[in-house]
Design a protein that fits this description.
about 250 residues; alpha/beta; TIM Barrel; 8-stranded parallel sheet; 11 helices; about 15% strand; globular
């Protein structure tokens, strides 16, 4: 039984004061909803403020990105040791915006995944196809390749904490959402490739989230599907009431 996980990716929004105020308001709304794990991903400048704000134990904190090395002359980067030291438990890897705007590749995703697992950070590996790839009937090829490269050299005995997030790039921030059938099909493809790259047991236990214009109105429909184990939420996670409602609706 895979416990659902609902994650909030705040992207480049919220000052430290705004982030702390969100946590205070949000915690009151979800303190008694323990059916799902909850992870907040603030910007790097707000991590300390969020970690330092009192909250329920099932609300955890993660970094939106990290370098795969522990230290070095990499201006602007954050290492896994830094995330651990500040109190993070999770990290996003390979988000579509990191791939699109910052030249993230499947190879760097693999390096970051190995590093996260080595440092006991729970990685959420983001994958997904663009609209032209879907329209060209390349969705399966794209997803299987992204998963296969991400998992190259990964020891199955270390991969139990790993999480994937399917984000159809054509649905992020556009208001468009994959139909439940489309999302479920993509998640089955991802789970199948995890089984092929690692083991069927790892595939069966790996949580796969859906990310693509998740809102309170569609959360229940998406999260009740067999292979969808929660959601990676963008814009709708910026408001505490909206994000809390998604968590409540995800219970089905």
């Amino acid at each position: 039984m895979r416990k659902p996980l609902i994650a909030a990716n705040w992207k480049m929004y919220k000052t430290p004061a705004e982030a702390a105020a969100f946590v205070q308001a949000f915690d009151l709304l979800v303190a008694h909803h323990h059916h799902a794990d909850i992870v907040l991903f603030p910007s790097a400048s707000s991590l300390a403020a969020v970690v330092g704000t009192p909250r329920s134990k099932h609300i955890q904190i993660g970094g939106q990105d990290m370098h795969w090395l522990n230290e070095g002359a990499y201006t602007g980067a954050t290492s896994p040791l830094m995330l651990k030291a500040i109190g993070c438990t999770h990290v996003l890897i390979g988000h579509s915006e990191r791939r699109q705007y910052f030249n993230e590749t499947d190879t760097t995703v693999n390096l970051k995944l190995k590093s996260a697992l080595a440092h006991d950070l729970i990685p959420i590996v983001c994958i997904g196809e663009h609209l032209n790839e879907r329209e060209s009937d390349l969705t399966a090829k794209v997803l299987e390749l992204q998963v296969a490269v991400a998992l190259e050299g990964i020891d199955p005995t270390t991969a139990h904490s790993m999480i994937f997030a399917y984000e159809p790039v054509w649905a992020i921030g556009t208001g468009r959402t994959a139909t439940p059938a489309t999302a479920e099909q993509a998640h089955k493809l991802i789970r199948g490739q995890i089984a092929a790259s690692l083991t069927p047991a790892i595939a069966a236990s790996t949580r796969i989230l859906y990310g693509g214009s998740v809102r309170p109105e569609n959360a229940a429909t998406l999260c009740c599907l067999e292979d969808i184990d929660g959601a990676l939420v963008g814009g709708a996670s910026l408001d505490p009431n909206s994000f809390a409602e998604i968590i409540i609706q995800s219970k089905g």
